[in-house]
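Notebook entry, cofactor series.
This is the third protein in the set we're modelling with a bound small molecule. For this one the ligand is zinc ion. I'm keeping the input format identical across the series so the outputs can be compared line by line later. Sequence and SMILES below, as received.
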Amino acid sequence: MSSGKFVSDDIVLKLVSKKITSSDCKNGFILDGFPRNLSQATSLDSLLNNLNLSIEYVFLIDVPADLIIKRCVGRITCNTCGKIENEYFSDFREGDKCGEGIFVKRADDNEETVSNRLKVYAEQTEPIIDFYKEKGVLHRIIGGEDGPQRLTDEIITIIKN
Ligand SMILES: [Zn+2]
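Returned structure with ligand:
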């Protein structure tokens, strides 16, 4: 994971299967960052079919690549309370104090690793957009710099309709 690669499909699918059949998922569940490729999407489909379940909504949160890079490369986390700031969008810098802790950078939040993740996304994840579009469950949401609240509102509106 620290080199920007992902855990194998087999392992991920077993983990997902175990989780979504557990009692705390009986009213539904949200998958975030899964499936990441067409093979995972089709495996998930047959898994859900066997369980008499189906995906009701797929939200594609579309953010420009340069903004994604800034969000990842600038991300700093307090090593004590877990607070997250961004060097591009706040006055906090790596090494600054946060209460008892200091802000540190994750080893995999460098430009090379993030660019590699975006390349993997384009090659492997983008094809599943059409897969879900054909099923009629895909909703594209334009993400940007206006924060998470608008996205939340938009998603809630879609689900309520
Ligand atoms: Zn802190």
